Amino acid sequence: MKPKLIEPKGELLVRHKFFEIEKWNLDQLREVAPIGQFAIVCCLTGSVCCADIELAPGEFFLIPAQLQYRQLHPQTGETALLRVTIP
Prior knowledge:
- By secondary structure, the chain is mainly beta.
- Helix content is 0%, strand content 54%.
- The strands form two sheets. It has a six-stranded antiparallel beta sheet with strand order 1-2-3-10-5-8, with no helix packed on it. A four-stranded antiparallel beta sheet has the order 4-9-6-7, with no helix packed on it.
């Protein structure tokens, strides 16, 4: 079964039984996922920092499920990212 592109409703872009992709526009601190759930983040615009790692546009970061420091900090205005998780 192929994932279907849906009309974006809020932040959700793609939902499949194996993964979800959301687009976040960050203008303040935000937790990427609860502890126990991993996430993959791709910076689209601006710059974002998580766990002392700074991402520029086009860079990816795998946030491990047990990472304690899970806050995403936008470093510039108009920071946008993709967040991939397992539902």
